[in-house]
Amino acid sequence: MKYVFIFIVLFILLFSAIAVLMVTDTYVFKPSARASLQETSSESSFVVTSPSVASLQAKTKVRASIICLSTTGVGIPNIEVSIQGHELLTIEPVQPITDSRGKAIFDIMALSTVDSELPVFCGNTKIVPTVHILVR
């Protein structure tokens, strides 16, 4: 009877030890979608301007939103975005460093009537779409 009791106690201790190991050996999967500056895609990144045509008399500002994306389509955070200037335009950086979704914002105002394409850079990468400014 004494040996049966010892066997049951050892059996319970063994399974308790196995249960503790199973609980402490769990892994947590944390998905993350991050991209680095080297992965900037010049073809996937894009530019949105609003309004598409601005009025010179109303001194309308054109808001340019630039979205810098990786080759997999993920927004690239914390990179500097720049728009190459034009002598008739004032470019005001509202948010020149991309946010967590890869978005940067600029306001553009014209000093005269202008119809121009402005090159855009996400970090050191010149993106294919340009900022088209039309002010009448």
Write up what this structure looks like.
The protein is an alpha+beta fold and 136 residues long. It has a single domain, classed as Immunoglobulins (Immunoglobulin-like, Sandwich), CATH 2.60.40.10. The chain contains one helix and nine strands. The strands form three sheets. It has a four-stranded antiparallel β-sheet with strand order 1-2-5-4, with no helix packed on it. Strands 3-7-8 form a three-stranded antiparallel β-sheet, with no helix packed on it. The protein has a two-stranded antiparallel ribbon with strand order 6-9. A hairpin with a 2-residue loop joins strand 7 and strand 8. The chain is rod-shaped and about 105 Å long. It starts with a helix and ends with a strand. The model has no long low-confidence stretch (mean pLDDT 83).
Topology, element by element:
Blueprint: H1 2-24, E1 46-50, E2 62-67, E3 81-83, E4 89-95, E5 103-110, E6 114-118, E7 120-122, E8 125-126, E9 131-135
Antiparallel strand pairs: 1-2, 2-5, 3-7, 4-5, 6-9, 7-8
Brief synopsis:
The protein has 136 residues and is of the alpha+beta class.
